[in-house]
Amino acid sequence: MSEHKKLYDEVFSLIEKHDDWMSKTINLIASENVSSPAVRSAIVCDFRDRYAEGWPGERVYAGCKYIDEVELITIDLAKKLYRAEFADVRPVSGVVANLAMYTAAMEPLDRMMALSIARGGHISHARKDLGGTAGQIRGHKVRNWIFDDKEFNIDVEESMKEIRKLQEKGDEIKFLLFGGSVFPFPHPVKEFREIADEYGITIGYDSAHVSGLIASGFFQDPLREGADMMTTSTHKTLPGPQHAMVLAKEEWAEKIKRASFPGLLSNHHLHNVAGLAIALAEMIEFGVDYSRQIMKNAKALAQSLHERGWQVIAEHKGFTQSHVVLVDVTETPMKDGRAVEENLE
Q1: How far lies 53's CA from each of 50, 66, 135, in Å?
Q2: So where are the chain's domains?
C-alpha cells in the first residue's frame, strides 16, 4: 500500500475514533455544541463546492439562484428570531463578524472600550500587544472596562467616570463593546446608552456565547437595550454550524454589507449558511424549551459543585444566568488548569 493511501485511511480512522470518543464524553467546553441531524444534513449539500461573492441577487458568480434563495430565507429567519432590522449571515466566524462590526463602526486607530481578557473578554476584543484582533488588525486602541470582581460584571459607575475622563483628555472613545467569552451575567448595555448618545459613541455587543439564550429570551435583549449592532456565533448556545452573523439597526446595513464584502469575505461557506437556516428555524420552533434546559443544567451543575465544597463564583447571584459556570480553583490542587485538562482528557 502506498504511503499516501495509508495516510488517507488513517484520516478516516481518526475521524471514527474522534466520533466514538465524543459519543462517550461529557464535554464541558462552553464554546461547543452538537447540531441536529437536520443541520448536519444541510451542511453536506452541494453548496459546499460553490462560490457566491456579494449580496443575494448581486452576486459576482453565476449559478447562485438557489443559493440566493436559501440565503434570503436565512436572513429573514435571523431577523425574525432576533427582531432585528438588518442581518448579515455571511461572516464565517465570530472573529470575522467582530471585524465587520469594527469596520462598520470605526475608522482604523479609533479608541474603544472592551472587557480585558482576564475579565472574560475575547482575543478579538484585545489590544495589539496581546495579539488581539481589534488592535493587531485594525489598530484600535483598546481601553478596558472597570470590572467589579464581586459582581463579576462591568462596574457602571467607575466605567462612566473612565469614559468621561478620557473624553475630557481628548482621548475620544468611539465604540463601547459589551459581551465576552466568560459571560455568566447580562452586561449593563442600557445604562450606557445615554453617555453614548452624549459623546456620539456607537455601542456593539458580542453575543457569541449567549446568542441562543438571547434568541429565546433567557438572557438580555441588546438590540432593545441600546446596542446599535450585535455579532453572534452560531454554534454555541445557538446549536448550528460553525458560522456567524451581524445583526443591526437598518441605518448600519450598508456599512456592514460593505465591510463583509468586499472588505473581509470572498466566498462565505455557503453550506453553513444552509445549515444556519435550519438551525434558526429549529430555534424559532423549539428554542424556548432548549434554552430553558441549558439554564437548568448550568444552575444544577453550579449548585451541585457548591454543595460539594467547590468555590463556585457568584453564589449570591445564583451562580449564573447563562450556560457558563465559573469555579475558583486557585487554592486547590487543581489550580494548574492545563494539567487538569490533560489528566481528564
Answers
A1: 10, 14, 27
A2: 46-282, 288-344
Q: What is the pLDDT of residues 167-193, one digit of tens each?
A: 999 999 999 999 999 989 999 999 999
Fold of 46-282: Aspartate Aminotransferase; domain 2 (3.40.640)
Q: How far apart are CA 127 and CA 281, in angstroms?
A: 37
In whole angstroms, how far apart are CA 97 and each of 19, 102, 163, 169, 332? 29, 9, 25, 31, 38
336: cell is: 494548574
Cell of 240: 448550528
DSSP 236-259: SSS-S-S-EEEEE-GGGHHHHHHI
Model confidence pLDDT, tens digit, residues 89-112: 999 999 999 999 999 999 999 999
Separation of alpha carbons 68 and 122, rounded Å: 32
Are residues 147 and 154 in contact, defined by beta-carbon separation less than 8 angstroms? yes
Rounded to whole angstroms, how far apart are CA atoms 121 and 178?
Answer: 9
The DSSP 8-state label assigned to residue 186 in this structure reads -
Q: Which of 304, 320, 159, 157 is nearest to 237 (CA)?
A: 320
CA distances to 90, 244, 272 from 240, rounded to whole Å, are 14, 10, 8
pTM > 0.90: yes
- What the block records as the C-alpha cell of 188 is 449593563
The Cα–Cα gap between 20 and 27 comes to: 13
* 46-282 and 288-344 have identical folds: no
201: its cell numbers: 459613541
Cell numbers at residue 239, please? 446549536
Q: Tell me the residue length of the chain.
A: 345
Q: β-pairing, 141-144 with 111-114?
A: parallel
The architecture that CATH gives domain 288-344 is Alpha-Beta Complex (3.90)
Provide the β-strand partners of residue 88: 246
- What DSSP element (H or E) covers 18? helix 3-23
Give the single-character DSSP code of 169. H
